[in-house]
Amino acid sequence: MDIQTHVLTHMQQVLPLAEPLPSPVHGRGTMMSGGDQEPDHYYVGIDVGTGSVRAALVDQRGVLLAFAEQPIKKWEPQFNHHEQSSEDIWAACCRVTKEIVQGIDAHRIRGLGFDATCSLVVLDKEFHPLPVNREGDSSRNIIMWLDHRAVSQVHRINETKHSVLQYVGGVMSVEMQAPKLLWLKENLREICWDKAGHFFDLPDFLSWKATGVTARSLCSLVCKWTYSAEKGWDDSFWKMIGLEDLIGDNYNKIGNLVLPPGASLGSGLIPEAARELGLPSGIAVAASLIDAHAGGLGVIGADVRGHGLTCEGQPVTSRLAVICGTSSCHMGISKDPIFVPGVWGPYFSAMVPGFWLNEGGQSVTGKLIDHMVQSHPAFPELQAKATARCQSIYAYLNSHLDLIKKAQPVGFLTVDLHVWPDFHGNRSPLADLTLKGMVTGLTLSRDLDDLAVLYLATIQAIAFGTRFIIETMEAAGHSLSTLFLCGGLSKNPLFVQMHADITGMPVVLSQEVESVLVGAAILGACASGDFASVQTGESLPETCSVVTDFFLSAFVME
Ligand SMILES: Nc1ncnc2c1ncn2[C@@H]1O[C@H](COP(=O)(O)OP(=O)(O)O)[C@@H](O)[C@H]1O
Ligand SMILES: O=C(CO)[C@H](O)[C@H](O)COP(=O)(O)O
């Protein structure tokens, strides 16, 4: 889609914003073993997003009983370099977990599951943090997923045309781990590469910290490290890109024991981690998931009966889970592998066991909306007015748009203003990290109306990006009918409505807003042995015992 057709479809397809949103339907899916009785088992889910760590206590019926959140540190020492600290993140995990289990009978806690962003954690041979920066600051030992420092490395990797690239949409992303590893070898040889003993995906770092087990999740290795669920590591790839040193020691530094998400790790929670987290030692700890995959697992099997949706009579492969936080991830599953140019995958068993996964994505969505709003001259005025009304800036902007639209549908406020949203490159389906953002239709206006309309145009551009990804997935063989949204942006009704209007698909929101966390708790439930797997049986969702029982869609926008 070039900018011309983008603008055209933009103007043609923006449908009226629906009447006030229907109230959530308060109901719940089939009860699990506990029925209506007092819950006797609890599971803890910990979700490490880009901006914060959250924890939830969930019972065996899938009801979220307690929630806590804590921001985490981020550094941007130079443009396109984004770093974090594994110690800071672990400390935040401990704080939020202690908070959610206060006053709870700890003996009822049966399992713990983690999900996290797919950032790269570097430790030395004694498991101490190593610097990923020229300043030698070892507290910054994580290269974040959105870090784009390894541009030259990923370019060379893609030039090899190695066959593993077929399984990442044909083009490896600079956000994956191989280019970041190569960057470390080429740029920080002495202070980092030569001393490194362990390179972890963040979700696997957390499960190691909790159990002392260095096993990696199939999810991380397949989606970000070129591991094949069927064939394992491909030596020829690592040799071809100049990282043959990782093959030695049987891939010990990047993982040689690989477990499916939800598998129980070692002897469970080790005493030191138990003390720090405020949980009983020895409870089951699960092999982890990447955050988008936990969200996908949390929503894709939702029980939609009674809402008259076409997907009720369709296989689960007609559903697209969209996890919308700092970035948006578009998770579609299939029985057979589907190769979609510019869309990551197909990945076998990386999210739902036994299914192939394709993962489309937009590198910055929440971050882009925040950026557009916060950098506008009218932002201080917006903040003051929202604070005076005790509203979030987004609730304020949404009601402001309702005021200024007058009789016309809100979508038409942007007939003259268009945003191209690739401010941090295009992840899918163009798979071009060099792309930049664009705004057309600017005037000299600097007021709040102008800010509100720019905010709307940004949301619309993101929704068009989702539509572009859906069209590309369908052209390659997916057949999609319904969107299942979760993540921070799904709490914004305008964002959700624009996705329904612009894709022409109904959007289902889970009754439990914190679906990503429930996805993490499902892992803990599975590891505890209380449930046989994250999903059982041949087909979803009918026989998807844990997933279906945990969820009921709350309301639908069409
Ligand atoms: N209630 C809300 N209304 C509008 N936007 C929201 C709301 N809550 C969170 N967001 C937006 O969602 C994004 C963060 O989503 P979140 O899932 O918390 O991100 P991450 O997992 O990447 O840390 C931010 O851009 C934030 O502005
Ligand atoms: O690449 C991803 C998943 O495969 C995500 O974009 C990344 O993990 C960041 O997630 P979030 O936007 O929720 O913080």
Automatic annotation (TrEMBL):
Q: Where is the Carbohydrate kinase FGGY C-terminal domain?
A: 320-527
Which Gene3D superfamilies does this UniProt record tie to the protein?
1.20.58.2240, 3.30.420.40
Protein keywords: Kinase, Transferase
Q: Does the keyword Transferase apply?
A: yes
Which part of the chain is the Carbohydrate kinase FGGY N-terminal domain?
Answer: 42-298
The question of whether Transferase is a record keyword is answered with: yes
Return the similarity comment.
Answer: Belongs to the FGGY kinase family.
Among NCBIfam families, the record links this protein to:
5C_CHO_kinase (TIGR01315)
UniProt name for this protein: FGGY carbohydrate kinase domain containing
Species source reads Rattus norvegicus
